[in-house]
Amino acid sequence: MTHEATARHGGEAAAGTAPGPDGGAGVAAAPKARPIVTRGLSKDYEMGTETVHALRDVDLVIEENEYIAVMGPSGSGKSTLMNLVGCLDTPTSGEYELNGQPVQDLEDGELAEIRNREIGFVFQSFNLLPRASALHNVELPLVYAGAPPDVRRERAADALSAVGLADRMDHQPNELSGGQRQRVAIARGLVNEPAILLADEPTGNLDSETSAEIMGLFRQLREAGQTIIMVTHEHDIAAHAGRVVALRDGTVESRDADPRLSADAVTAAAGRTA
Amino acid sequence: MWRILVSEFLSDLKSQRKRALLTTFAVTWGTLSVVLLLSFGEGLRRTFVDGQLGAGDRIFKIYSGTTSQTHEGLPKGRRIRLREADLELLERSIPEIDLTSPSYGRGSTTLEHGDVRTTTYMEGVEPAFSELRSMDPAPGGRFLNARDLEERRRVLFLGDEIAVDLFGNSDPVGETVRLDGLPFTVVGTMREKFQSSMSNGPDAERAIIPATTFRAIYGREYVSHLLVRPRSVERAPATKREIRRVLGSRHAFAADDERALPMWDFIESEEQISKIGLGIQIFLGLVGAFTLLVAGVGVANIMYVVVRERTREIGIKRAVGARRRHVVAQFVFEAMMLTLIGGAIGMALASAIVVGVDSIPAGNQAMQYLMNPKLSWPIALSALAILTGIGLAAGVLPARRAARLDPVESLRYE
Fold this sequence. Notes:
The complex is a heterodimer of chains A (274) and B (414).
Chain A: H1 2-17, H2 26-32, E1 36-47, E2 50-62, E3 67-71, H3 78-85, E4 93-98, E5 101-102, H4 108-118, E6 119-122, H5 134-145, H6 149-162, H7 178-190, E7 196-200, H8 208-223, E8 227-231, H9 235-238, E9 243-248, E10 251-256, H10 259-273
Parallel strand pairs in A: 3-8, 3-9, 6-7, 7-8
Antiparallel strand pairs in A: 1-2, 1-4, 4-5, 9-10
Helix pairs in contact in A: 5-6, 5-7, 6-7, 7-8
Chain B: H1 2-15, H2 17-55, E1 60-63, E2 65-66, E3 79-80, H3 84-93, E4 97-113, E5 116-125, H4 129-132, H5 146-150, E6 155-158, H6 160-167, E7 176-179, E8 182-189, E9 207-210, H7 211-218, E10 225-230, H8 236-251, E11 263-265, H9 266-309, H10 311-319, H11 324-359, H12 365-370, H13 377-404, H14 407-412
Parallel strand pairs in B: 5-9, 6-8
Antiparallel strand pairs in B: 1-10, 1-11, 2-3, 4-5, 4-7, 4-10, 6-9, 7-8
């Protein structure tokens, strides 16, 4: 499976560098093939009198339909990277182009719009609205996108059907299993057809069987053309990705096409720290 | 935007029924208190003013007095006694004077009809007295007229209560009453009125005859008092000074000698009573407003807790694309809706109580002050304004706090 994913990744990368289908408009097509480009992305936090460099000079290029795993020990900056890439936070310095648009200097309202349109979030603890039905949860991004109610319903229902929850639409999160909740969250993440699906430890609260289900779903999504970034600390989960970005002390330690290799690197890094 | 707000409000309402119910109840209670207090205060104020108006409407009652200053070589302590000629002089010299009437009074006058015999305070007056003293005739009768005066007729106008004393439930108009032994024809009775201010007993117990008839029978030279109504309330103090000046030069007393010519200024009394009423109103309004404020603090407190409880929810919403103003608007809207719904219920309940209590007939005069609550537009609008203000304040503070939350932090919040 890993080889298959890698092969697919390679194919996509090749397609990305080739001129776009509209030939002459290759310049316009080129950024579309690289939904995420960061240059010297840094984030500092003030902790009392000390400055913590959570992320330093990260250059990251993610191409369309890539499936990336971001790994690293705690404190390595992977959450910070995730928040910056997800436009939940703004960098201290550096540049970030999302779908060709520089977003590092956007203000809160514009970032909210970008999050709404371009990014689908999937969290470890699902983060569903507890007292709302699965359907309403999935409708939420469409609510802020300003879609009319009937369109909202239809698209949310389609998204839920796509993750295999057509018969659970009216259930509240506490009436669903962990796997089902994460599927609802994935449906919510995808309902606005975002450029990137950003998953933060998506299997962290799930047993191995359900984790495998979710990974299967991610594979399907990727096959359908979705770009996925997944933060995880589990090697066997990272192994599902086409490429691993390993972080350490806020810098990219390894960018390897073979997830097993980078996983070893992370293990080695963790060993050195211990 | 509105669609988002309403749909979120409705789903929040559904999911937090108990909290919404309690919040709404607090506001309902506060509104009920403030509106009821203000309504009863307004009723109290109106009853005060009506009671004063029942004794006389915008008039000066001018009495005979005693000089308290020496004047042009005359000693103080001289009696100043008023005649009808003084009234004629005032009418001639002061154009500002509108209506006048002399009043000759006689206590313990005997009234007899058949076997019933009673005594009361009796007055001899002119036709304008009816308007000056708010003694309107009940339907079927009339007050004294100019011909009664000219012809010194033996006609009698009775207070509503003394009429009942003498005649029971039968109609007294046209009947004969013996007044101090002389036969008088009843021409009218007074329409029932509310009177809180009085001298020589209430008007309901009074017997009224023409001033000319009174003088002919009792041979009085001096009046008990003069009644004068100035044309303008604004110029009333000047008119009052003018009266003292004119009568002062006639009777040789100083124009600023108030005790030479005591005057009961109904305009001033009414103003004072209005002020007292307004004072009561403000006091009750403040009490009510504080009650409402407590309710508002309750709402704010609950909204604050809600923001805390919903930190995660806010984070989720922010992550999927809610802007800061969406979050602010959500909380402000929710606080406003709860406040306004609670306010509307409170207002409706208060109106029902006000209308209900107002329709109960007051048993006695004391109850008259309590049982006349009035709900007026100014009251309703000020209550609404207070409510809206409190709703906004209660919503804005927590909402700003909610909007300040960092989405990253909010999502991590357990």
